[in-house]
Amino acid sequence: MTTSNYATERETTEGKVFTVTGGDWDQVVSGTDPISDERIVVNMGPQHPSTHGVLRLILELEGETVREARSVVGYLHTGIEKNLEYRNWVQGSTFVTRMDYLSPIFNETAYALAVEKLLGITDDITERANTIRVLMMELNRISSHLVWLATTGMELGAINMMLYGFREREYILEIFEIITGLRMNHAYVRPGGVAQDVPDDAIVKIRKFLDLMPKKLKEYENLLSGQPIWLERTQHVAVLDVTGCLALGVTGPVLRSAGLAWDLRKTMPYCGYESYEFDVPTHTDGDVWGRYLVRLAEIRESLKLVEQALDRLKPGPVMVADKKIAWPAQLAIGVDGMGNSLEHVAKIMGQSMESLIHHFKLVTEGFRVPPGQVYVAVESPRGELGVHAVSDGGTRPYRVHYREPSFVNLQALPAMAEGGLIADVIAGGASLDPVMGGCDR
Amino acid sequence: MTAPNDRNDNAGVPVPVTPAGASSTAPAEYPPASPAGRGMFGTQGSGDVSGFGGLVRQRKPVEGSPRPYGGYFDEVRDALEEAYPQFGEAIEKVVVDRGELTLHVRPERIAEVCQVLRDDMALRFELCSSVSGVDYLGADERRLHVVYQLTSMTYRRRIRLEAAVSPEAPHLPSVTAVYPTADWQEREAYDMFGVVFDGHPNLTRILMPDDWEGHPQRKDYPLGGVPVEYKGAEIPPPDRRRSYQ
């Protein structure tokens, strides 16, 4: 073994110890300043633990400073919008629920509202169906924000936050499973109402959740809100003001964290939101910290909404009365998920030929939707989720376009990241809460 | 038996016969062509599987709505007419349907109209919610429509702008200078429909791979696919299935 100039050795009782020093590199690089002279391009993603799925970022770095950032999307493009054109209107719910997989109920509700508006039956949706939609959407908002908290916590170094966030989200997914038969991708909210009624044991479980969640929220706040590392990583990081948000089309918690109380549930209500008591939390800093506070406060508001919705649940139908539109089956949850109830199958197969014909026609062919186009938007956990639906008068959508908040909001990433540190790209990107399934559709 | 058995000598023994349409080597055959066209119910084009195959759905041209439109629509129109002197030339028609206002704009004027809609005090459409395309194949020669959903946060209003271009000259000005948020959405409309937004800073594909050919959400884009065999029967590819025609 040779001893170099850069490592001196000495004998200790534990053995030989080398002390590595810098050597003469100071003299070698004395003429240049590698920090300011060198620009490197770093390709981050599409497979990267902190890009929220398959987002690819191309970063031009000067030392640790990001000079230019470009995001590349499309790795999760599944052609759902095109697929919708080849299924009937009801089958569409099964597709759109798979877009933004963290907020499936919102995708379904926006789609159902658009189809109902095209059909002109918006006012015929029963009160119970609307209440259930609000209930499910708000539970979904909580679960989506919990995933945001969990993943952002993990990306900024709070691994325990990830475990806690996913643990509580699992509770909501269990509630969803009782109600819809599936943890995700429910296809539960359908044009005309919801697929089936909420069972009693789900109500019990939701009540338990309402007791449990405020304590858990306190726990998260104790864990994060006063913690110096969390504050350092979030405060004054990835700032975007209202002007920037509006120019780039950013809506949702990011816009509200900049100070504009724009929430479609208040400003352009749907599903009866105008009759609920809740506040729109805002913050004025427009940084990651503000977005964290806004989302935590939104979970609390959603809990209020869930409680009000539970109190309002009066017995009644959950589907429109019009049998030409309402799904013919009384669906039921079986061991393998949601399906036709046995009573219904017994009726159409054993007793009523007309019922069978009706069922067959509505299921295979579907209902017709008068020609025209509508745009309907709901407030998803990520911002304005809009559906532009066009009908040519047939049984299948002529065109459905989703205005996905993940897609639109991701455009703001360069504005947040450029000029900051590379570590803050992660914080800024996470604070947008992009879901690539929704972004790429 | 009275009739002589002239086929074979092992009478009574079943002979395996390949059922029509269930062969694993030949694709499923369509029923004999009828005057109404091929397919079980004789449907073609309309996608009608109801059995009334002879019916053809007519697509009525979209017509302008008469005034008064009701709601805030009259105010928006009046304010735009006042703020934008070329209104009569730029706006092809005004349609009110299902409680939504649609302004059909001449494509070359779209950026100007957006600028006025955003900046005028009485209009204030600050947010461009969505830009997307629709392909009205067979409607008229300007079949590619670009649809803009604008939101006024000040007045809590929404309107829709629609600009139609032909696939031979699919050009219209980009609105990215007015609404930077239209950047990616115009790229998506270009990707899916082949509409070229002149003046866009970086009009490249966004969802499809860079080297993709064609624009998949055009209605005449072939679906492709391969026939799939399932339990001896062959399921034809999507665009050749009966209900897809």
Automatic annotation (TrEMBL), chain A:
It is a peripheral membrane protein. Its EC number is 7.1.1.-. SUPFAM superfamilies: HydB/Nqo4-like. Its main location: membrane. Keywords: Cell membrane, Membrane, NAD, Quinone, Translocase, Transport. It is found in: Cell membrane. GO terms for cellular component: plasma membrane. The keyword Membrane applies. Residues 156-441 form the NADH-quinone oxidoreductase subunit D domain. It catalyses: a quinone + NADH + 5 H(+)(in) = a quinol + NAD(+) + 4 H(+)(out). Gene3D superfamilies: Cytochrome-c3 Hydrogenase, chain B (1.10.645.10). InterPro entries: NADH_Q_OxRdtase_suD (IPR001135), NADH_UbQ_OxRdtase_49kDa_CS (IPR014029), NDH1_su_D/H (IPR022885), NiFe-Hase_large (IPR029014). The keyword Isomerase does not apply. One of its GO terms (molecular function) is quinone binding. NDH-1 shuttles electrons from NADH, via FMN and iron-sulfur (Fe-S) centers, to quinones in the respiratory chain. The immediate electron acceptor for the enzyme in this species is believed to be a menaquinone. Couples the redox reaction to proton translocation (for every two electrons transferred, four hydrogen ions are translocated across the cytoplasmic membrane), and thus conserves the redox energy in a proton gradient. Belongs to the complex I 49 kDa subunit family. NDH-1 is composed of 14 different subunits. Subunits NuoB, C, D, E, F, and G constitute the peripheral sector of the complex. This is NADH-quinone oxidoreductase subunit D. It comes from Micromonospora mirobrigensis. The gene is nuoD.
UniProtKB/TrEMBL annotation, chain B:
Its EC number is 7.1.1.-. It is found in: Cell membrane. InterPro entries: NADH_DH_suC, NADH_quin_OxRdtase_su_C/D-like, NADH_UbQ_OxRdtase_30kDa_su. Signal peptide: none annotated. It is a peripheral membrane protein. NDH-1 shuttles electrons from NADH, via FMN and iron-sulfur (Fe-S) centers, to quinones in the respiratory chain. The immediate electron acceptor for the enzyme in this species is believed to be a menaquinone. Couples the redox reaction to proton translocation (for every two electrons transferred, four hydrogen ions are translocated across the cytoplasmic membrane), and thus conserves the redox energy in a proton gradient. This is NADH-quinone oxidoreductase subunit C. The gene is nuoC.
